[in-house]
Amino acid sequence: MKFLPFYFILLFSFLSLGFSNADPNTNYVTATARKGDGANSLMRRYHIKPECALSEFYRINKMKKGQGLRVKQVYKLPIEIKRFDGKKIRTSLQIDDYDLALSIQKYNDKLTKENLRRTDFRKSKVLWVPYHLMNPCTIESPTAQPKKHSVPLGGNASYSIFGKKHQYVKRKSNKLA
């Protein structure tokens, strides 16, 4: 009878682990909430786009959307901690996108410069990968107007997505193929 409450706590803990949405193998950067902080301001301090990562912030902290933060409470940020192989970000993260790797490098350098990171990722071999870079979102402005063609007929448009060799495309028509 003495141990009955202990077994209930143990059982409840075991069951709650099975229903967690957060990956237990994922390590996240943490930050302590300051007076006046909300989820948006805490994420902006670490240059995370709240409009792209707010739901993820609530999910990994097992919070309800819109729930306030407590001063001096430590929260996980939607920034994954990954091992840097000392060579390239692309090989470390197993990605092919050069621009994405460069964005992650600039992000880490910016946080180091602003003393939000203690050591440079090249020295520590630890890379911070923000959610909004790996899972980009598009926010449409309600007043956005369709773009007009900036390249006249017969002119060359530049599309870096096709690579340097095929970057320039001659515009022949306004019609879709």
Number of helices: 7
| Shape, per Cα inertia axes | globular
**Helix-residue proportion:** 25-40%
Which regions contain 5 or more consecutive residues with pLDDT less than 50?
Answer: 3-22
The amount of beta strand, in percent, is 5-15%
Number of strands: 5
Side by side, the strands of the main sheet go 1-2-3
SSE arrangement:
Blueprint: H1 4-18, E1 28-32, H2 39-45, H3 50-60, E2 74-83, H4 89-93, H5 98-113, H6 121-124, E3 126-130, H7 131-134, E4 156-158, E5 168-170
Antiparallel strand pairs: 1-2, 2-3, 4-5
Helix pairs in contact: 2-3
Textual characterization of the structure:
This protein has 177 residues and is of the alpha+beta class. Helix 2 crosses helix 3 (50-60). The chain has seven helices and five strands. A three-stranded antiparallel sheet has the order 1-2-3. Strands 4-5 form a two-stranded antiparallel sheet. Residues 3-22 have low confidence and may be disordered.
Task: Name the features.
177 residues, alpha+beta, 3-stranded antiparallel β-sheet, two-stranded antiparallel ribbon, 15% strand, globular
